[in-house]
Amino acid sequence: MRDESHLPKALQGLRIPLIASPLFIISVPELVIAQCKAGIVGSFPALNAREGEGEHPLLDTWLTQIKEELDRHNQANPDTPAAPYAVNQIVHRSNGRLERDLEICVKHDVPIWITSLGARVEVNEAAHSCGGIVLHDIINNRFAQKAVEKGADGLVAVAAGAGGHAGQQSPFALMHEIREWFDGPVALSGSIATGESLLAARAMGADLGYTGSPFIATDEANADQAYKDMIVESGAEDIVYSSLFTGVWGNYLKGSVEAAGMDPDNLPMADASTMNFGSDREKPKAWKTIWGSGQGIGAIKSVGPAGAIVDRMAAEYAAAGKKLAAEFS
Ligand SMILES: Cc1cc2nc3c(=O)[nH]c(=O)nc-3n(C[C@H](O)[C@H](O)[C@H](O)COP(=O)(O)O)c2cc1C
Fold first, then answer.
1. Residue of 18, 19, 21 with the most ligand 1 atoms within 8 Å of its CB, for mutation
2. Is 131 left (phi over 0), alpha (psi -120 to 50) or beta?
3. Which pTM does this prediction carry?
4. Given ligand 1 and candidates 24, 138, 222, 240, which is best to mutate, with the most ligand atoms within 8 Å of its CB?
5. What is the pLDDT of residues 253-289, one digit of tens each?
6. In this structure, is the dihedral angle defined by the CA atoms of residues 168, 173, 178 and 183, taken in order, positive or negative?
7. Nearest Cα residue to 155 out of 110, 205, 196
8. Closest by CA position to 109, among listed 163, 70, 158, 140
9. Which domains does the chain have, with CATH numbers?
10. Which of 40, 87, 320 is nearest to 208 (CA)?
11. By three-state DSSP, how is residue 34 classified?
12. Does an H or E element contain 133, and which?
């Protein structure tokens, strides 16, 4: 039995202690619903719900759809209810729709809020006003302390090898430093693609794993077939760490950089002032042609349903746990 008494309710009772992380462009309601039905927290960035000027907010439509689908599932499957969902807010000054998105999330009582690129008291207050919890995304201990000071309930520790805007620290070092002072919920990320890695994250002191890249190679993901195939065909050495594409250091597939006519082993650095999450940003083009991925994708052997990844990781997690437990019995 997992001791989950210290965790907020929204993070208890998952099939395995795992959050499917938000993926820009890729995480759409179909994927989130599949992840939640499979028993892990599914998530998406609010910014993925893009609508034209004057249209009804697509975020509102998506949240209604996700809640209705999960309610239907729970009524039909009371013994295996869906896990809760999470919405990711990019808390960067260039995100001009943040305030509107917060209002929509409060209206829908979003249970888990994942915040990235800036910790802000008012975002945490908005989440708490509707009974939600906030997990803030950090890459080092200093940012972790700041996030908790500003009212985050828990942390997502983004260690080396994670997809997208990854940190550079070893997960062992980062988890240890955080656990020296923080006993609240921590999800650990960075190349967790197997049940064995998830168990290792738990052994290091993380309450949950946080996994993104494997879900790119799924039927439900909003990604080009060539992107999904490249995830299947690539391994850790096919990943390049660069600040060029968004102004923030992150991990990308070398194959996509080459396809865009650049040499992945000789990329220039970018200026952080180029970061832009406004509606006028050109970066989606970068994310559309330069494909993000963490180093853990060697474990991904085919494109298939998201639920199959959860099934595989659950089986591996249980087997690895039993094997290690035998050592201590
Ligand atoms: C293609 C891609 C897009 C991402 N987009 C976002 C995003 O919009 N917001 C966010 O907080 N994190 C984003 N991330 C980071 C992930 O949420 C997560 O930290 C990371 O995927 C975990 O590492 P893993 O891919 O090795 O599992 C993205 C990652 C990838 C690979």
1. 21
2. left
3. 0.95
4. 24
5. 999 999 999 999 998 877 655 555 555 445 446 678 9
6. positive
7. 205
8. 70
9. 9-224+294-328 (3.20.20.70)
10. 40
11. helix
12. strand 133-138
